[in-house]
Structure formats: C-alpha cells, structure tokens
Amino acid sequence: MFYQLESLTQSDLFSEFGDERLEKLNQNNKKPFNLKNFLKQYLFFIITLVLLGILFIFKFDAGLKATDVIVYSFKEILLVLPPIFILIGLLDVWVPKETMIKHMGEESGVKGVILSFLLGIFAAGPLYAAFPIVAVFMKKHVKFSNIIIFIGAWSTTKIPMLLFEISALGFKFALLRLALNILVIIIIAYVMGILIKKDEVIAMYKKAEDF
Amino acid sequence: MGNYIFNGVIYLIAIIFLIISFVKSRQKTKKALIKALNSFKNILPLLLGVILLIGLMLSILDTRLISRIIGKESGSLGVLLASVVGSITLIPGFIAFPTAALLLEGGAGYIQIAAFVQTLMMVGIVTLPMEIKYFNKKVAILRNVISFVLSIGVAYSIGFILGIWR
C-alpha cells in the first residue's frame, strides 16, 4: 500500500515537471538510509580493507608500502578527476544527443572513429577515469565500437604517456608501439562490434541512463 | 612533467567551459554540477576498492620481483609472465616507464618489456569490477582477453622489428 502510494506521488512529480532528474534525485535520497544497499555497494572496498589489515598483521613492511601506493593513488585521483567529472556534467547537459549521434553515432563512419581516437589520445588520467565518460557516451548514443576505440586509445595511446615512454624507452620503441596499437585498437573495436549483439548493446545503454 | 602540463590543460578547459556555461545559464550549470557529483558518487565505492587493490598488488609484486620474472633470457615464458604481471598490476606511467627502462638496462629483452608495458596499459584485471559495472561482464572480459592476446602479438612484432631496425 505504502509502496503504491510512494510510486504514485513519484510518477505524479515526474509527469508534472517532465524532468528525469527529479526521479533520480528521489532515488539518490533514498539510498543512504538503506544499510543493505550501502554494504552491497561497498562490499568490494570492505574486502580490500580487510585484506590490507591482514597484510599489516603478517607483513608490516608490505602493509606500509601498500599504504604508500594507496595514498599516492588517492592524490592522483583528487588531482585528475574533478575536471573530468565537470566536463562529463557539462557534456551531459549542453550537448544534445542528436549532435553526438551525428558525430560519433551509428552512422558517423570514419569521422566517428577518428574523433573517438582523438578524444582518447588527448586524455589525461588512468583508465578508470574513462569509464564514467563511457557512461555519458552511452547516454548520448555514441556507437558501441567507437566507445571501444575511445577506451583503447585512452588506455594506451595517451600523449602524456607517450612522452614518458619516449624518454624512458626510446623514440623507436614508443613510436613502433603507437603505430601497432592504432591497428590493434581498430581490430579490437571491430571484433567486439561483431561479438556483442545488438540487444546487449541496447541493454548496456539503457543501464547507463541510471549513472 | 608532461603529465602535469596535460592536467593543467584539462583543468583550464574545464574551467573555461564552466564559466561559459555559467554565463549562458545558471540553471543548467547547476544541473551539470549535480550530474558531475552524481557520477562521482556512482564510481566512488568501486574506486576506493580498486585503489586499495592496486596498493595490495604493488606491495607484493614489487620492482625486484618483476625484474626477477622478466629478467635476462627469460624467453617465451618470460614474455607470457611479463604479460600476466602487466595485466594484474596497475602502475602509474611515471613509475612504470623508468622501471621498464631499468629492466631493459638489467638485460631484459625488448619483447618482454613490450609485453609488460602493453598489457600494463591495455589489460586491467584490478579495474575489471569497474569495467563490468559500466559495460557488462561479457564485454569487459572479452575486451581484456582480446587485448591480452593482441598485446603478445604487439610485443613479438616490436621485438622482431627492432631486431632488424638497428
């Protein structure tokens, strides 16, 4: 009964304002009070926390070293993530779906491929920073194989990393790897495009609406 | 160094767009920031876990162990092990590349180093939970498996071409 009432008011609000945000905000407001949900969300973190504790007990030095890396990674994230998330938010609000579809969507062809590459190449930050961007790309119906190209380019052909690689391993090594990877990234996107069925892609894109 | 400049550029771009957005519409800018915060909240639980996992991995798989695995004349097994190590670790570039350079000086072959660097960047076992969340299990696993196989191909190609191109 209560549930019915709640869903009724929610859908009333939804239709009145015609704003998907409202529904999402309602969902978010409910979340913090649900302990089970909270535990489920943070289960992975809790497990790793326990593992870190165990490491400290048995090998204190290793525990310290792990903590060092963790602190470093946190700093990196705090440095890298804020502008990325701001850009994600702005893209979500300002760029219409139609524009993204035109440039990177199903019919975007070679232009879409090149754009996906460039966005990945000029990125900064570790691979996991790319995933929230993937979510907004899905919302805007960017072609699936273009998303895979973007992920591939982000993971291995980023310019800042390339500069590092040249200075550490030499010009030939870095350039050769870059050239091979452009090929590899396209192959991966092509193969994934064949192996992942259309209905799976649709399901993923639908899921992304909740992010 | 390059990293910092790039980060600066991204900050600059974000700030410029934010200002333009604010001038054009306060309402929309607010909405954008709420969305930014929400997508951060969404990734936070997994991100915390992944970061801890990276720390745990690196405390066990340190440079010394890695150099022992893919050191001198480790051969094809060395290439495979280098790929496995590269896949399960997630080392920031500014540590990874100098390490790779040291390994190279220490006598590791180009093929092993290439396999290590390549899988380090393309294959992410620790970030798999995140990849599954944003894509799905099949996509995440397929992408990583295909990347792993092709990475070994890339490593051998680099070794082969550098052997001639000298």
Structure in words:
The complex is a heterodimer of chains A (211) and B (166). Chain A is mainly alpha-helical. Chain A has a domain at 95-211. Chain A has 11 helices and no strands. Residues 1-19 of chain A have low confidence and may be disordered. With 166 residues, chain B is mainly alpha-helical. Chain B has 8 helices and no strands. Classes of the chains: A mainly alpha (211), B mainly alpha (166).
Summarize the structure.
The complex is a heterodimer of chains A (211) and B (166). By secondary structure, chain A is mainly α.
Helix/strand structural class of chain A? mainly alpha
Distance between the termini of chain A: 29 Å
In this structure, how is the largest beta sheet of chain B organized?
none
Rg of chain B: 20 Å
- In round numbers, the mean pLDDT of chain B is 88
How is this fold's topology laid out?
The complex is a heterodimer of chains A (211) and B (166).
Chain A: H1 2-17, H2 20-30, H3 35-58, H4 60-94, H5 97-104, H6 109-121, H7 130-139, H8 144-156, H9 159-169, H10 171-195, H11 198-208
Helix pairs in contact in A: 1-2, 3-4, 4-7, 6-8, 7-8, 7-11, 8-10, 9-10
Chain B: H1 2-24, H2 26-60, H3 63-69, H4 75-88, H5 93-105, H6 110-122, H7 128-134, H8 137-164
Helix pairs in contact in B: 1-2, 4-6, 4-8, 5-6, 6-8, 7-8
Quickly list its features:
heterodimer, A: 211 residues, mainly alpha, 11 helices, disordered N terminus, B: 166 residues, 2 domains, 8 helices, 84% helix, 0% strand
